[in-house]
């Protein structure tokens, strides 16, 4: 999988983008497991991607739900046994 960021918000620590092979839009943010730092990627549709590019409050609301693990069914890559926590 090749994830290409189309928007990066360094202050709130999240990104929007598209996975190049599948065309799947996503939201991602960094996590840390104590062993490694990595990103978690959550699937979104094209409409959400467009809205999030223009509406920071809406994007943050979604990202924070993901950080609280409320939307794990949208994870593009399922985490292993030592899943990290949002940074």
Report on the architecture of this protein.
- The chain has 87 residues and is of the alpha+beta class.
- It has one domain (3-81).
- The protein is 24% helix and 36% strand.
- It is built from two helices and five strands.
- It has helices at residues 46-54, 56-67, and strands at 3-9, 14-19, 25-32, 37-44, 85-86.
- Strands 1, 2, 3, 4 and 5 form a five-stranded antiparallel sheet that branches.
- A hairpin with a 4-residue loop joins strand 3 (25-32) and strand 4 (37-44).
- Helix 1 packs across helix 2 (56-67).
- The mean pLDDT is 94.
Give me some keywords for this one.
five-stranded antiparallel beta sheet; 87 residues; 2 helices; single chain; alpha+beta
Query: Approximately how much helix is present in the residues?
Result: 10-25%
Low-confidence stretches: none
Number of domains: 1
C-alpha-based Rg, rounded:
12 Å
The structural class is: alpha+beta
Overall pLDDT confidence: 94
Distance between the termini: 23 Å
**Number of helical segments with 4 or more residues:** 2
Percentage of residues in strands:
35-45%
How would a crystallographer describe the biggest sheet? 5 strands, antiparallel
- Identify the overall geometry: globular
The overall strand count is 5
The topology string of helices and strands comes to EEEEHHE
Give the secondary structure arrangement, pairings included.
Layout: E1 3-9, E2 14-19, E3 25-32, E4 37-44, H1 46-54, H2 56-67, E5 85-86
Antiparallel strand pairs: 1-2, 2-3, 3-4, 3-5
Helix pairs in contact: 1-2
């Amino acid at each position: 999988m090749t994830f290409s960021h189309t928007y990066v918000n360094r202050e709130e620590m999240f990104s929007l983008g598209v996975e190049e092979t599948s065309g799947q839009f996503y939201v991602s943010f960094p996590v840390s497991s104590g062993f490694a730092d990595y990103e978690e990627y959550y699937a979104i549709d094209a409409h959400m991607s467009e809205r999030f590019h223009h509406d920071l409050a809406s994007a943050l609301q979604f990202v924070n739900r993901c950080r609280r693990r409320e939307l794990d069914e949208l994870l593009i890559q399922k985490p292993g046994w030592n899943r990290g926590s949002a940074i």
